[in-house]
Protein 1
Amino acid sequence: MAAPARRAPQQPQQPQPQPRHLVSATASYANFYHNRVLEKYLKQDTKRVTLRQLTVFGRNLTEDKLLRSANYVRAELPVRLAHRIARFQQLPFVVGTNPHIELVYRMYWDAFETFRALPEITSLEQNRVFCDTVRSLLDTHLVVIPQLAMGIAESEPHLSQHAADKFMNETLRSRIGRRVLAEQHIALSADFEGSRPARDHWIGIVNSKCHARDTIDKCARLAGSIFRNIYGVEPPAITVDGFQDASFIYIPDHIEYILFELIKNSMRFTLEKHAPEIAARGVAAANAQPHYQTASEALASAAAAAAAPSLTPQPSARSSHRPRRELPLEDDDAADADHRRQPAHQAAASEHNPAPGQTLAPAPASAGAPASPLLPAIRITIGQSDTQIMFRISDQGGGIERQIFDHIWSYSHASKRRALAVAAPAHSMPRLAAKLNDPIPSTLHLGLGLPMSRVYANYWGGNISMYTMEGYGTDVYVSISVGNQSENLLDDYKGSGADVHGK
Ligand SMILES: Nc1ncnc2c1ncn2[C@@H]1O[C@H](COP(=O)(O)OP(=O)(O)OP(=O)(O)O)[C@@H](O)[C@H]1O
Ligand SMILES: [Mg+2]
């Protein structure tokens, strides 16, 4: 993307309505002075943090430590933003003129200017004002992911798929990094000021004992609740086996996003494969009445469903309009029905083979209950080693066709462009934190779930890989590094996983 100073003269255009804070940005970045300022920041390297540093620093907070944290964030964010702005300037000129890309570019300049104008923070009062500024920028930037995805998808004729995906991966990873620093400081400030309840093992936004099984249960409950609201039937059971007591230092928001997206995919495609009519009717009904539900609403309705005595959940506010249906099985599924009716934990236990000498948790239990006894269960296995925690999510959702599988990690492939184009006019651009509590319509599929999950996993040195058997099902492997891993900000990560398409 050309620097604003080099922008070619354009035909006069009708003024477009812009967010208020961007109006000044348009004019003010179009001069040489601003790129000189940018260069000054580009000469500075980013100071990457490790998860352990975040937790060690956040323990036994004092006022002095909190102010040091504030000044680190104040100094570090403009350096990181400068590196991002420079990458935008390297995009082909025509890509930089795409309105979605240009909007994000201006937002980054705006944030850069805001941070670099901030004086040193020397008191708690100044820190409170600083936290408010950071919070409001985090909020303003919630449109960044969908805007970027749309801009990159529309730029397909001018950017190779490889270049587009590399740009997106780096931009999103860098975005995660900036948000981690900002959110960690805001959370530490809240902890220090006593403005939020203390929680065992939490240091800011990091949980030093993130429990694998509990995380799966939470994501399964949430995905199950959304599934019920869309389709009006119970979701497939989730069985969990392996090292159920595994725990690790992590930012729960990150692993929850990943597991939630994978479970959501598995549930959706299991229904589409085994009861396609119900799946289609559910989507049509949900689209006719788009419904925005936050995670807390969905979890509340999941709790109500779990409290119900039978396998049929209490109808949620949304699904109560629609009659609850029995799942009619396809003919070729009937032979498997007995196996499916077997309680999920028994089915999983019979397949469960611990390695000699290893101690594993007892019989796995179904997560996210209640569940449909008629759909094949989704099986999640937790693995653990000295350096990694692993999750394998196995479903019988029919697998993935070759044409789709080859582009599942891409942001700019034609299938993603179509999804975004359909989504955007109907719902306008959603605001996306890429966290569990994004209030977006449940049937809006932007095609970002898998690539964004991999960006999250890569950020702390982990990876996601996928194995699919077309016509049968899919296995997804998520590995999480548990060493003293530092942020991985560039797209030079060589994950060990491979994606395999079997036919
Ligand atoms: N478990 C699965 N079984 C079958 N197909 C899958 C599975 N997971 C992903 N896919 C295929 O990969 C595509 C991309 O998945 P991804 O999660 O990135 O996007 P999406 O689910 O379409 O949209 P979003 O995640 O934004 O709601 C899906 O549309 C689907 O075709
Ligand atoms: Mg998805």
Protein 2
Amino acid sequence: MAEIQLSLSVLLPILLLLYFLKLLWSRRHYPPGPLAFPIIGGLWRIAFEKGFDGMTAIKAAKQYGNVFTFWVGHFPLVFLSGFDAVKEGLVDHAEGFLDRGSTPFYEKVSEGKGIAFANGHAWKQQRRLGQMVLTKLGAGKRIMEDKIEDEAQQLVEIFASQKGKPFDPILFITNSVSNVTFSLMFGYRWSVEDPNFEKLIKSNEYMLSFGLTIFYVLYELFPSIMDRLPGPHKKALESTEMLLSLSKEEIRKHREQEPTQEPRDFIDYYLSEMEKEKNKNDPTSALDEENLIHSIHDIYFAGLETISTPMKWALLILANRPDVQDKIFKEIEDVVGSSNICYDDHKRLPYTHAVIHEIQRYRYPILVGAARQTTRDVHMRGYIIPKGTYIVPNLRSVLLDDEYWETPHKFNPNHFLDKDGNFVARKEFLGFSTGPRSCLGEPVARMELFIFLTRLLRVFNFQPPPGIKEFTEEPAKNLSASPQPFKVCAIPRNN
Ligand code: HEM
């Protein structure tokens, strides 16, 4: 017995060592990265850094290079870091990096349908249709701009009703941003007191913090085991159900209504395109109700935190900088006077436009970027990245790239201005990503941020509450790196 124990205690470490060396050998073509052990991969590094935040992957790139591999258990994630590597990946290897890297968790939520998590022919069809509808709702007809202006006006009234006292703006901002999408999708809006709105926002908040927990990682690594166990992952999966069933109900109502001559919203357009496709009898068509439901889900969530987070940051950052607020106010007064501001005015308001860009650069609302997956073996910078590998284009690292931005970690509107004060569009401003899979909602997002912020800034002066000299600009630890909870005073300018 003692002999067996002795041989086991010698054999086992040798076998483990051989297994470890075999792993290292089989991974030799991948770009370098933190040492990956069996089972845990490189996760030890996150424990060592006391969690994952917006700087973790940027620091790793400084150590391992702008193309590096991070092993999550047995999953390789290849990170692209900095403007050159991200652009090379997403533009020069656009086809090779085209697929969305859907993980077991997101596969379960999306079933590969909709826009953000679909691939291949189905993705192309949803994306083309989504783009066409957003253009129709926005271009020429002013439907979109009118809806944004209505919401911005409501937000001004809510802020005014606080009478300059400290208040938490977060729920009001989220409600307004949410309502723009709701009215484009369904044709109606929700009040901030609506219990459904509260439920939807709570489920979104839950998902944002769940994405950085160990339960999320465990689900991605061992989905079939986790499916059998209770825990926060169950709540996260259930929380996505609400919008899906709400969309289903709205589609049913739209089908029952008398058809109008002109489609009124996203659902009307999609249903009418579905009908046309049905008449063509195309067996490959992916325009169907399930895809419509998931497209609504994707557009709603893709545009919620990404817009409300820069708006929250805008109030906080500008409350810390009264001189910047005054300059914006003066520019609007001088150029627009008492007329209504419309989106086209961004061309006449270079300083304001530059500040809005700088807010998005300085405090980006996505922790790293949306994962992609290789559609074939990709040869990049001397490495072979095999087909099916997950790719993370780190867009935050592009916006903080010290080779391109003069003061990457400092708020500086001059990043977007020339010496004569004209607005400069910077190619390194890749917040909406680039290439054929870049953000579908970029024109909507640009319009929303401009109209909401100019409306607010021409009416109010934002200040920290009495007794607080300056807000912290350290982001909270969640997937959108949003500001930590804060209360602000909106002091009416006409006082
Ligand atoms: C400032 C606000 C926004 C930012 C920073 C942003 C950023 C992004 C990024 C980085 C991606 C991933 C692109 C890639 O894989 O390369 C993305 C995808 C997407 N965004 Fe946005 N987004 C914003 C607002 C919006 C809005 C308002 C909508 C909807 C109206 C929207 C809809 C989408 C959709 C549907 C996708 C998936 C595209 C696809 O997979 O083909 N986004 N966005």
